[in-house]
Structure formats: C-alpha cells, structure tokens
Amino acid sequence: xxxIGFFLAAVAAVIVQISLGAVLRFRLGSGGLCLAVDFLAILxxxxxxxxxxxxxxILAGWILGLGIDLATTGTPVGLYALTFAxxxxxxxxxxxxxxxxxxxxxxxxxxxxxxxxxxxARTFICLYVQxxxxxxxxxxxxxxxxxxxxxxxxxxxxxxxxxxxxxILQPRRRR
Length: 175
Fold this sequence. Notes:
Strand content: under 5%
Structural class: mainly alpha
Radius of gyration: 16 Å
Number of domains: 1
Shape: globular
Number of strands: 2
Number of helices: 7
Helix content: over 70%
Largest sheet: 2 strands, antiparallel
Strand order of the largest sheet: 1-2
C-alpha cells in the first residue's frame, strides 16, 4: 500500500462523500428512506480488489470506516471502522476468485460490501444505540444504499483505475 497516496485519496473521498454524496441523496417517500451512494465504500472495494496483500487492505478499510465515523454524528466512533475493515477483509479474500475488471463483478462486490458493512453497523445501532428503531427498516436502508453504490461503482472504479497505482501496490503477475 502506498500510504501517502492512500491518505490523500481517503481525504478526497471523505470530501466527496460529504459534498457530492449529500447532493446525490434521493429521498423515497416520507418514511425517511433514501438512495445514497457511499463513495468511501467504493474506494474500499477498489483497495480490496486490487491490493497485493490482505493486511494493508484491511487497515485501509478500517481507516476509511473511521472517516465515516468522524464525518457523521449519532454513531459510536469506531463502529464503521470495524465494519469497513470486516467487509474489506471479505473482498480481499474473494479477490482471487473473481474477475476484478468486470463491471458486473464490481457492482456485485460493492453491493455485498455495503450489505456487510452498513448492515452490521445498522444492526448494532438498532440493537444497542437506538433500541426500537426498526431493524427491518434499517436493513432496507442498507440495501437501498448498497444498490445505489452498486450502480455507481463500476464507472467510478473505471475512472479511478489510472490512479490505483498511486494508491495501491499492485500484485505481482505470474509469468
């Protein structure tokens, strides 16, 4: 992992999430549900799919989750750091079994990442932070966010492909 490039990308992703993410949030009815793209999750998926080693990828996922924790209110600090690290570990482990450059693969991996990371965090919040806030509704919100992220992930990952060498040490290719 190229940590200076990663930190710059992480700061840029937090800024994009706070600014552009707020603009791209579409409310669905009066129930409080919305479609929202998670740009930090897309960066974590890119790192999980392209990193040469699993441990630095997990640490990068933890840092990206900490960025969400510090940028939002109402959640315990470290919750998204933990769930992003867990989801990045899953992505890094399935990397050898998938076609990394396939847009359908990228969309499915982004959806699974969001369901794992946001689903686990929202479950914890529903059970311990805000009991009685409706677990089904929280999971539906995680699914909607995952679907929005899955739709946006392939073009964003394609746009970030030239920058991935500045962020990630690429795995060595077998000859």
